[in-house]
Every structure is written in structure tokens, then in C-alpha cells.
Amino acid sequence: MSKILNSTIGIAGCGTMGLPMLEVLLKNNINAFGYDIIFKESFSSLKKNFISSKKDFFQKVDVIFSVVRDINQTKELCEGKNGLFQLNSPKTLIISSTLSPAFLNNFFQNAPENITMIEAPMSGAPMKAKDATLTFMVGAEKNQYENILPILNILGEKIHHIGKFGSGMSVKVLNNFVASCSVVAVRHVLSEAKYLNISSEQLLEILNCSSGKTWFSENIKNIDWAKEGYTKENTIGILEKDVNSFLDGLENSESETSQALLNFQKSLLNSLRNIPKFPNED
Asked: Is the pLDDT of residue 182 over 90?
């Protein structure tokens, strides 16, 4: 039987996803601590459950969820000064950031033997993190998956064991590619609707009861970043990073389908960077 609920859990990266995950763990009486490279006012409510020192954080926790933004932050967390990979004690690292599967495979191969590495990328946006209904796509050995399942069941609603390490991230970048397409499509048609004398509310109402319905269109009023423009730092910028993660996995493929996707993906990236203003923001 898994003893993970008796372990000390760490959330590395207390941003829009990591912070609500930490709060959910604490509400469920899990011994949990957060760490982020930048201290924010929102962390003050955590009192003693936020650790500003990376060294102290890693010494305190047994199981670490990495929810940092990208590859560079992942490498800094693990390989940088006072990083996880410098420890000699056994630790479990659960990577929940969306990263390139190609990078992740190489990262896994170079991890120290004392680090058990599992990948569990997630989907659902901050609203799902807050109400503990995230979807997790797990890549790990069966016994590793069963060991972490109790903690994932606290954080999420739909937990899928995809296969061995790397398989979860492969599914995630495919999912995010489709999601990015829907974000771009919905935002662009909402922007154009006014030129056809159709309100954005009318269009959304029809989309959501017709074949144009998507996760983004259905949840647009509850997604905190739904109206954002593009910057490298915000969630639209994260979508760009996720599309590039998929792109990285396709670049060595010689199939005609992959080449067609590569061409389409480059157009998608351009559309994300030039996403129109949300209607009525002028």
C-alpha cells in the first residue's frame, strides 16, 4: 500500500497552477510546502508552508511536484545551484510542467539514481486546480503510478496511466496542440463576428450547442486568461511554449503528415502571437 499521504509533499513553482494545488493539499491535511523563485504577496497566507530557499525546500520534502514554467526553469530547479540533483538522499520528482518530450527523455536519462522521476502533466487550467478536478496523464512504471495515485486523486478528478516515462508528456503536447488551435479559432471568430452584425454572446451561445463547441468556448467565462493578449509571460505565451514543445518532437520525423503539421504549426504560432483583442475591449 502506498505511504505517499504520509510523505512531505513539495510544490515547486507556486504560480497560477502550483499555488492552488498547494492550497488543496493543505486543505486535505497533507504535510505540504511550496517553493518559488520569486516571493509574492499571495504566499503570505501560506505562513510556514512557503519556503523561499531552494536548498531548505529540497531538504524538507520527500516528493516534489515540478510546476515551473519551462525547460530552463526545470533545469535550474534540478541542475542549478542547490538543485535537486545535487542531493544524495532519495527523492521522488513528479514533472507536471508541459515540456518537450525530446528534452524530457534526455533529462530522464541523466537523472541521478537516487531520484525517482515520474511525469504527470496536467490539464484543466487554474479553475480545475482550485477545485481539485485536474486531469493527469502519467508516464511511469505501474508500481510508481500506484504509489503516487492517492496524492493525484486529491489534486485531480481524472487520472490516466498512459504508459512508461515519456508517454504522458507525448499525450499532453498533442492535447495542447489541439487546445491551442481551438483558442486561436474561437478568439479570431469572436473578433470577426461584429463585422457580420453578430454579437460575441450570440456566437458563443450557438457554438456551445453546435459542432463548433470546444473546451475553450464552453469555459471561456470561467477561464481567467481567456481575454488575454499575447505576451511571452502570460498564458497565451505558455501556449506558444507548448506548441513549440510539440514542434520539437516532430522536427526529426520524415513522414508527410509530420511535415504538414510542422507547416501548420508555424502558422498557429504566428496566430497566437497576433491573437486579436477580445471583443468590447476597445
From this structure: yes
